[in-house]
């Protein structure tokens, strides 16, 4: 269990240390100036990827060693989580497109992460899941609060319904792949009932 916790803790620390630079923009900007934009992006990406890999290894080991139950979610929360995760994926895709969803939500990536984390918290009653998804939810809320304190962008964003459709299509295809292939075959966690 100690090795599992180490992977999990170090992975979370690395991933969220890199991603928390969004909250400390002054420090992030000075770091970019010192090391250069490309070097910053390369290190940021490597640290984030290493963090995700370690989180994955730690969480897989935790599941293999046996979940630590805290509460027993009712069946309906799993069905609700399936629905919510579709919205989460569509919003994450919308974050990269000039669509109306992005204009209305302002930060669809953070909205998607908050929905994803909340959905997983509803469907998982074990300690490891609560820690993992709770930290993601806390981080997304903290980043959103820090963004609200920044000056508002005066430049209006153009948006196209075509890109809303693209976001829904790509998000839906990703959702199907995750539900029917990634979750059961790669994570070894079936999520579709039956």
Describe this structure in words.
This protein is mainly alpha-helical. The chain is built from 8 helices and no strands. Helix 1 packs antiparallel against helix 3 (37-65). It is globular. The two termini are 32 Å apart. The model has no long low-confidence stretch (mean pLDDT 90).
Keywords:
194 residues; 2 domains; globular; mainly alpha
Q: What number is the mean pLDDT?
A: 90
Topology pattern, helix = H, strand = E: HHHHHHHH
Q: Could you tell me the strand content as a percent range?
A: under 5%
Q: How much helicity do the residues have?
A: over 70%
> What number of structural domains do the residues give?
2
The outline comes out as globular
| Main pleated-sheet profile | none
Tally of strands: 0
If you compute it from the alpha carbons, what radius of gyration comes out, rounded to the nearest whole angstrom?
A: 18 Å
In the predicted model, the low-confidence regions spanning at least 5 consecutive residues are: none
Distance between the termini: 32 Å
Determine the number of helices (DSSP H or I, runs of at least 4 residues): 8
Specify the structural class: mainly alpha
């Amino acid at each position: 269990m100690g090795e599992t916790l180490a992977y999990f803790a170090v992975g979370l620390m690395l991933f969220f240390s890199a991603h928390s630079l969004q909250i400390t923009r002054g420090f992030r900007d000075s770091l970019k100036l010192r090391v250069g934009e490309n070097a910053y992006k390369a290190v940021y990406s490597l640290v984030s990827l290493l963090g995700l890999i370690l989180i994955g290894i730690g969480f897989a080991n935790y599941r293999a060693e046996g979940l630590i139950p805290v509460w027993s979610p009712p069946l309906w929360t799993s069905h609700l989580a399936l629905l919510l995760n579709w919205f989460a994926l569509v919003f994450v895709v919308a974050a990269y497109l000039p669509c109306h969803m992005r204009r209305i939500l302002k930060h669809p990536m953070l909205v998607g992460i908050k929905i994803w984390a909340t959905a997983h918290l509803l469907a998982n009653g074990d300690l490891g899941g609560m820690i993992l998804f709770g930290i993601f939810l806390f981080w997304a809320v903290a980043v959103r609060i820090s963004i609200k304190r920044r000056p508002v962008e005066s430049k209006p964003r153009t948006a196209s319904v075509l890109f809303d459709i693209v976001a829904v299509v790509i998000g839906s295809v990703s959702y199907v792949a995750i539900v029917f292939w990634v979750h059961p075959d790669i994570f070894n966690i079936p999520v579709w009932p039956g």
